[in-house]
Amino acid sequence: MSMPLRIALPKGRLQKDVLGLFQQAGMPLEFADRSLIAHDPTGRLDAMLVKNSDLPVYVHHGIAGLGICGEDTLYESGFEFVRLMRLPFGSTRICLAEPETPSDQAPARSGGFTVATTLVRFTRDYYHARGIPVNVIRLSGSVELAPRLGLAPYIVDLVESGATLTANKLRILEDLDTVSVFLVANPAYYKLNFRRVDELCGMLASHAAPEFGTKHARSEQQNRHTPNPRNAEREATSTSAEGLNAAEGANAKDTRALHPSADTRRRTGRPRGTRHANRQEMERHNGQTDT
Amino acid sequence: MPIPENRNSRSGPVAEWKEAVKPKQHTLLKRPAGTEGLQPEDAVRHRDILHILERLFDLWGYLPIRTPIVDFADVYASLLGRDDWERAYRLIDREGDVLLLRPDVTLFLAKQIATLTPDLPSPARLYYADTIMRHEAPESISRNEYFQIGSELIGSADADADLETLVLLFRVLDAVLPGAAMLHVGTRALPDAWTQAFSASNAAELGSAIRLRDLDTVRNMLAQTEMGRRGAEARARLAGFIGTPREFAELHRTLAEELDPCENRAVSHAHDAVETVNRVTEGERAVVDFSEVGSRAYYTGITFRAYVEGAEAEVAAGGRYDKLYGKFGLDRPAVGFSVMLRRLEALASRETTQQRAPGTVSGPSFVERVTRAEERRSHGERVVL
Hints:
The complex is a heterodimer of chains A (291) and B (385). With 291 residues, chain A is of the alpha/beta class. Chain A has 13 helices and nine strands.
């Protein structure tokens, strides 16, 4: 008999839904007290529970051949995976937010639009694909505090109900993208085990979540949207940040922005350790002042 | 007259220079990402496996060739993909030219052949075994992309040249890990045909979507071309196919009318290659896989990758690149492969290459010990003084 497939599952908010999905599909996974490893009694799966942000690393290195993870975490990892199946839970939004009251807003830093976020790669690529320079401040949690404490005037963060934003007196300026949870595979692992992996996908799709098929069977409606921070096609829902709308509107009509060229990051980014002077600094440098 | 500085002084220009060149703790303990050194045990295994493979190439009539470790970067800028270009180490020489540390042997070899030996007889069979240097992210340093050994069959556009390369690759992999490798064979001709009207970045995006089996993106991008929804659906099915030649023949029967003659020729060629390779290798370990389109921008025809259980990424990759030599002024078709040897070595059994400890000699004097050791060495024994 062939070896069980190895799958990494995320601890935390997705854990209950993920275990429920395998239970429904006839592959119950029971983690004994504090144990992080479980075996499906049918012998199909060996599962390991790992921290969500570490999951892409385990799959990338082939320690686990398969994994279940949100697109935001997959994107931030920078690794390439085969996305096998979109799962019917855990969808959320990525939003740009600012303080409800302008007086609470942190002062803008020189050199452009500053955002605090855990989603550094997404935020940088999202705005650069639209030709908007952005200063990104990396945080690893409690992003909502950043504007109130004066770290940055804006945040980019995952938003489910919006209750956390409201509790921290923040409001959504713009929905940047929606993210889904995917069953993914290490590309080499998939190539070696494609028949068994396809069979697993079929079981999950037909027994547990028939409305969410494998990619091959997914409905046309779902196919229309593939979350991608470089996809500048969608209209901004709203924004009060002056200059962002204009820059985004101009780029939305530019087909290059749909699929940014290799140089997009260079055009809109800047080398580390350098910054653009803002208008006041330039004028000061040139000995001119506004009166 | 200036007073000469005391070389042991704690201040002054000499002391400043000493401070500047003193190794810092982090540079002392780290090494540049994407490089490695081999400790004796690994070095022995590397040498032994290399010896086995060089002997194998020799038996197949392939001649060794060495490429320079650096070359001028601008020559390769358009030939490396964006990711490869960003991962390549570049430096500036004294004349201000930007140099590229060898990130891929095939590219350096193509320039070397085209510029130095344009009258090379056709077909020419060459092999190389060299280090490559690419930046690796800290999270990826175990990917073992440090040493490539590979073949180049230059000057033949025949299907038999593709077959020779595929079978030789199997022999190389089996020499290190017998019976372990699976070979997935596809073709670059399909995405090349589909992306003729695409911009370079859109073509790259489609290639990436096919490689990562993101068939929704493939379907949606192709549906925007003149092939329409139905044509896009057929081609997405083709791009997602992995299976035996027999399984592919069944699919092909349903799709053949939808495809144009060029596409049909390309898929039939990959099918026939897999069928033939499976006849001359054990275990039917080659499959047809049209998501194998190659990650190098220079591929033009058949493309393939080899996978081994336990390796986190492919252990070998290759394909046909009929226009690469033309970029350097030599119009020759070529096909070849590269094996990431360090990735294979990590999986090779230690017993197969384990070396017995050398013997020792004793004697009253150094001269006598040398004489006794030489005698035993002449019989092939390893002896230390």
